[in-house]
Amino acid sequence: MLPPNPVAAFDVTQLQATLRKLGGNPQSLLDWQQLLQESKALPVPARLKRVNEFFNRRVRFSSDQEIWHQSDYWATPMETLSKGAGDCEDFTIAKYFTLLNADVPVEQLRLIYVKARIGGMNSNLQQAHMVLAYYASPDSEPLVLDNLITDIRPASRRTDLSPVFSFNSQGIFNGVDAKTTPEKGGVTQLSRWSELLQRARAEGFN
User: pTM here?
Assistant: First the structure.
């Protein structure tokens, strides 16, 4: 039996307090709650599309250095909503938490660290990137949610992305195959992710 989802619930009062503390617009949280309410009534493909578009349109891409004055910072969903800006990790994390709370099972979602080819088909240039993958079943090809493009495409159509490893709140996985089990050690193997989950719980995600 799969373990219960440890983050697919939230305390709205605590989230409101968190957003105020961060200086965010209260309307951002109301819009996010409306997104959840409306998404839950949709079939999963439409749910994915709605959540992907919500963040891709609402959040401005910016570097951690500009937003947080740090070289690498993983923001919680409330931090991203309060700033209205984020980098690829922040987009991916916000979509992950949102889909969990829109009743998508944790075992169907993976955050994937990839190398993204930039500069066209013949380019050898790569940069670190992160995307969110949805697995309809352990045997299905994952769908990729990305802040670089609005379309949600099967992994086979994202030849510009080379997966390195994947993870979710159940643990860290060697590769991206949905049939693989988490490696020993759990989320603590990835300190930034472990620390982010703790901060998200403190903000109101249970």
Answer: 0.93
